[in-house]
Predict the 3D structure of the following.
Amino acid sequence: SYPKFTNQASIDKMIEEYERDYYYEGILGGNHVSRVISSPVLNYLLVTTFAKSEIDKNKLNDSKYNKLKYAHFFADEVPFASILKTIGYPQGEAPKPGDTIRFELFSSDGKQFVRSSLNGKQMNFGGANQGILEVDTFLKTIYPYLYFGNIDDVWNGSEDITLNIYPKNNDYIEYLSSIHDEIAHIRHQVHGN
C-alpha cells in the first residue's frame, strides 16, 4: 500500500516514458550495443530458420536441425529490448518481465513463411504483412542486423563496434556457407526474377 498522487495517471505515464527511454535510449542508445547483445539470438534464428526451411524442401539432411521442434530463450529486459531495437521494431513502452517474441516457420500453398509476434500480437517489421514474411525475405531482413565482429572482444574493450556492423558477405547464404559446412554443400538455384 502506498499513497496515490492526485494525478496518478500522469505520474504513471511519466514513469513508463522514463523506463522506455532508459532501455531504448539510455542503455541501448546510439552506439550499436543492442546489435552486439542481440546477435547470438538473431544468428541462431537465422541459422535454424534457414536449416529448417531447407529440411522441409528436402535440400538438407541434418539430424541436429531435423530433431529441433522449438527453442526457448530466457532473457531479462535488456536483451529483450536489444532484439527489438536491433530489428527496428518501435516500442511505445519499456519491456516487461514475461514479454515474449515468437518466430514461427510454417508452409502454406507450397511456400514457406515466418510469422513474428510480440506478446501474441503480430509484429510487422521488414515489410511484414500481419506479422508474416516469406522465409527468404525474413532471412534477408535479419542478416544485416547481425554483429559481424567478435563479441568477446567487444566485452573486453579491444574491438570497436562500429567497425563490424556491416555484413562481410554478399548475402545470408554466403554467410551461412562460411560458418556451417553442412549448409555450404546445399545447391541453390535462382529462377526468374
